Amino acid sequence: MKISTMSASASALACTFLLAQLPAQAQDTASSSTLNSATTGTPPATSEAVRDALAKKEGDADNTSLLKETLTAVDKQYSLIRKGKVQVNYELGYTYIGQEKINTDLSSGTATLFSIENTNSHTITNTIMTDYGVLNNLTANVTVPLISRYSDSGGFSGVSHTIGDLGVGVRWQPHEVKRDEVAYTITGNMRLATGTSPYKVDVQKGVATGSGVNTFNIGANMTRIVDPVALFGSFNVGYSLAAKHLNQNLYGATLREVKPGASFGFGLGFAYALSYKITTSFSFQESIQARSTLTFDNGNKGQTQTQSAGILAIGAGYRMSPKTTVNVTVGAGLTAAAPNLSLTMSLPLSL
Locations of Low complexity compositional bias (predicted)? Predict the structure, then answer.
């Protein structure tokens, strides 16, 4: 505490000294600038020259366009494209999950503790997202993820390479977007269980790269641009079909069916245009998954706990050309069910 007080006092004295010297330094700087101008023949900078240097250049995007591109980077659900247009986006993502895994026996209908083990997972995902403008207010999209996952746990230590869960969806804007008004978008998505299922994978030979169930989501998004800030928010509900005809050994019993619970999610945030080429964004996402029911071959059933995953993300975007903007987002998990760390780089490319 004493050190902090001395530091604060020293800082205050330093600031006082600097403020006292500012007039003299300003006069010396002005005299030096005038002398340099007289000796070199270069005229001093004028206020008009400064304004011209900071003015928007040809080819620079206006803040509204740049903010829309930033919203696209934050979440594709916030954007639509014109009828007949195609847009391809590439996304490179990294996720780290480190946790203590509690092994329990659910086959008897009650939780019995077996052991606690440390589980670490590093996942790299290459995702290709293709959008097509069906109408000016209706966009269809397909998402193809290619996943490489390294896992280090008591059962398996190694790398798995496979395709993840494919996604198909639509985005519809019921009303024409007007300036200074909130824009609404209705979304619908279907995720197909094409990745390696966690209910079918051999835990001694690999790791899961998919959810193992087909999922349907419907939601709504709201955006409003108040130049140079864009405000956005969303919510969605999801329903998953049961995974049946399973044959996974789980602590002395055979898992036959998994019925996931319903899910609910919401998000909010804002994006800010720092210049005609650079933006930054802050967002929060929360997803809540109800209890899942597990059915075993002996007729017993067990339930998992409700899962809640919250992520706080900070992003930055740089406009390289009229058709290419690089966006980087860093996310930190706020709850036990969320990834500890996520890093995403996206490249929207208009065709």
Answer: 30-42
**Averaged over 207-221, what is the pLDDT?**
93
What is the CB-side half-sphere exposure of residue 337 using CA atoms within 13 A? 13
Instruction: Compute the C-alpha angle 231/233/237, nearest 5°.
Output: 170
Whether 197 and 208 have beta carbons less than 8 Å apart is answered as: yes
- 46/119 Cα distance (integer angstroms): 63
Read off the DSSP letter of residue 110: S
Maximum alpha-carbon separation in the chain: 96
Nearest CA to 88 out of 144, 128, 133 is that of 128
DSSP secondary structure string, 48-74?
HHHHHHHSPPTTPPPHHHHHHHHHHHH
pTM value? 0.72
Burial label for 288, CB within 10 Å (0-12, 13-18, 19+), is: middle
Interatomic CA distance for residues 241 and 305, integer angstroms: 18
The answer to whether 79 and 71 have CB atoms below 8 angstroms apart is yes
- Do the Cβ atoms of 171 and 186 come closer than 8 Å? yes
Q: Which residues contact 45 (CB under 8 A, 6 or more apart)?
A: none
Which CATH class for the 64-350 domain? mainly beta
Per-residue pLDDT tens over the stretch 215-245: 999 999 999 888 788 899 999 999 999 999 9
Q: Name the residue among 188, 191, 69, 88 with its Cα closest to residue 131.
A: 88
CA distance 24 to 17: 12
Backbone angles phi, psi at 46, to 5 degrees: -105, 165
Partner residues linked to 119 by β-bridges: 99
Residue in this structure with the two tokens 């014109």, named with its chain if needed: 82
- Residue 290 confidence class, pLDDT cut points 50, 70, 90: very high
Confirm if 210 and 196 have CB atoms less than 8 A apart.
Answer: yes
Q: Spell out the domain ranges in the chain.
A: 2-54, 64-350
Name the amino acid, one letter, at 249. N
